[in-house]
Amino acid sequence: MLGRDHALGGAVVFAALASSLHVTEANLVAGLVLTAGAGVLPDIDQPPSTTARSFGLLTEWFAWMVARLSGGHRHGTHSLLGIAVFTVGAYGAGLLQLSAPKSLAAGHPGFSWHIVPAALIIALLYSAALRALRIGGHHGDLLGIAGALATCYTGADLTQLTVGSWHVPLLAAATALGCAAHIAGDELTHGGCPLFWPVSMHEFHLLPRPLQITTAKLGETWVVFPLLLVGLAVAMWHATGHPLVLPHPSK
Ligand SMILES: [Zn+2]
Description:
Oligomer: single chain
Largest sheet: 2 strands, antiparallel
Strand order of the largest sheet: 1-2
Bound molecules: zinc ion
Distance between the termini: 50 Å
């Protein structure tokens, strides 16, 4: 599936769950863009992919490393273990950021290496989302970095979302949701995903063979892409407090 549709898929999932996760409108945009970025993150196992090209040689080298460690394209990063590793990484970066001197958490300018991993992850996710959605052109990466610094200094990525009885930081929740959406998207295609890698290489699909789509072909362009746009519009309408079903007029 194309990076554009993976990014949109991540954004749709976040918008659809925003009200259940009690996301405030102030955090909605950050959550949407982070999840869109995480929606293309699993393809970092492919050095020519959108995410891998975000910051030139730095991310291309990282992508090469990930591909080596995860057994190549559509293996480790497209499994449940892959989602867990990405999410734990985002969660760990958040914990480190929380341990930064309090003056930073309060939004005062300053520097602490405690925020570096979170800032790097957020910059990568923002830039990957902007690249996949073709927003900002070459300036998209600068926008991603500026957005990451703003997000870190305001601590918006550490905002706790309620998932059942758990409280999960926004960055970790967005990473998990985006990666899961990516894997679901690839499971609509002929390739499928090895969910239980490295224990089993069995590829899981969400559609029967005749309905499986081929990346960048008619099915994706004329069915998946428009459905994602409509889904995003409906989910955003709901996420911003509008009812999906009009109440019956009482007699
Ligand atoms: Zn993929």
